[in-house]
Amino acid sequence: MVSALLKDRISTAEDQIEDRRQEIAYDTREFTIEYIVNKYLEKNDDELSDIYVPEYQREFVWDINRQSRLIESIVLGLPIPLLFVAEIKESGKLEIVDGSQRVRTLAAFITNQLRLTNLRTLDSLNSFKFEDFAPSRQRKFKNIPIRMLVLSDRANESVRNDMFDRINTSSLDLTPMETRRGVYRGDFINFVFECSKNKKFVELCPIYKYFQNRHEEAELVLRFFAFSETYPKFRLSDKTDLERTGVARFLDEYVLSKRENFTDEERKQKLFDFEKMIEFVGINFPSGFKKRFDSEATGRPYFEAISVGSYLALKEKQNLQIKNLWNSGERNNHQLGAFDIPIDRYQTHKPANMLKRIDYVKEKLLSHSL
């Protein structure tokens, strides 16, 4: 016989299930590749487009081989994973929860920024850009339908974050920083993790929920040291540079180079530079490393631009003080209203793009110095 207490628990559980199921209601839609790409690219600012990549997913990480393989699969008519988007109640826009790398690959290909490479099944397409396809094939490609799961606009940001977390943690692999801590043990990697616990840094650099407890702070600190030290060529040796290796391997090689050659003198200098940069950002950037005041987290490209750009400006002018950088109206919403940091949707860590956004911050700061 079921007790009254158990009945109450069962009833509560059923109510909660029905309540949560309503929050995550979804429907399936199909849009052509051309429609998706056009809606994604329609505005210069990513978040103004009808289909957009949220700030926490702004880094483009697929290498050219993976991008090429996606295009090959689509041309062959093979099924690809569904895009998972959420309809935003206030604006009606579609936020990409899962599929940002795929959408950006499609956009890069159609705009001739991607040249296919290392294809095996359709090896005749190697070196092709979209413009090299026959006109009829171009039209057929653009008209291919892509299926989307659209999360109802009843789902709030918390539900969307939870969906992203579930999608990306179905099999929890080690993050690059977790791997580096285990593989490249030593004084330097320990130093990076120590810096990541700096109270002021943590305050200025909030971390998106999904990345919390996964050493994202240490990842950002490492990027600051690696990119500021190797600026402007982002090169460690004749055979190791950001252009050839990509970000993850470049950072691995940087840590490896420091493991055997990290002196007390360098430690003191790096700590001084890091703390001075943090202090400067805290004084001069109203939102810290975030793009906007209402942003919940820090995007990697913005962090890199602001941190390294500030460091370089301070290096050029040690007692740098800023005037008239922010207009009063801008402080209420968008700290970068005075800035327009060029964050590319495609190849965010191509050296030329890295240089462009870092130099932008550096020159902007120096031009407003007292």
Quick description:
49% of the residues lie in helices and 7% in strands.
Description of the structure:
The chain is α/β, with parallel strands linked by helices. It folds into 2 domains: 23-160, no CATH class; 173-367, no CATH class. The protein is built from 15 helices and 5 strands. A 5-stranded mixed sheet has the order 1-5-3-4-2. A hairpin with a 6-residue loop joins β3 (83-87) and β4. α2 crosses α4 (100-110) and α8 (187-195) packs across α10. The model is unreliable at 328-334 (pLDDT under 50).
Number of helices: 15
Unreliable stretches: 328-334
**Helix and strand string, N-terminal first?**
HEHEHEEHHEHHHHHHHHHH
The value of Rg in angstroms is 23 Å
Strand order of the largest sheet: 1-5-3-4-2
Report the strand count.
Answer: 5
Largest sheet data: 5 strands, mixed
* N→C terminal distance: 80 Å
Content-based structural category = alpha/beta
| Morphology | globular
Number of domains: 2
Topology, please?
Blueprint: H1 4-23, E1 26-32, H2 33-41, E2 51-52, H3 64-76, E3 83-87, E4 94-98, H4 100-110, H5 135-142, E5 145-151, H6 157-168, H7 176-183, H8 187-195, H9 199-204, H10 216-230, H11 242-245, H12 247-259, H13 264-284, H14 300-316, H15 351-367
Parallel strand pairs: 2-4, 3-5
Antiparallel strand pairs: 1-5, 3-4
Helix pairs in contact: 2-4, 3-4, 8-10, 10-14, 13-14, 14-15
Which key features would you list for this structure?
single chain, 370 residues, alpha/beta, 2 domains, five-stranded mixed sheet, 5 strands, 49% helix, globular
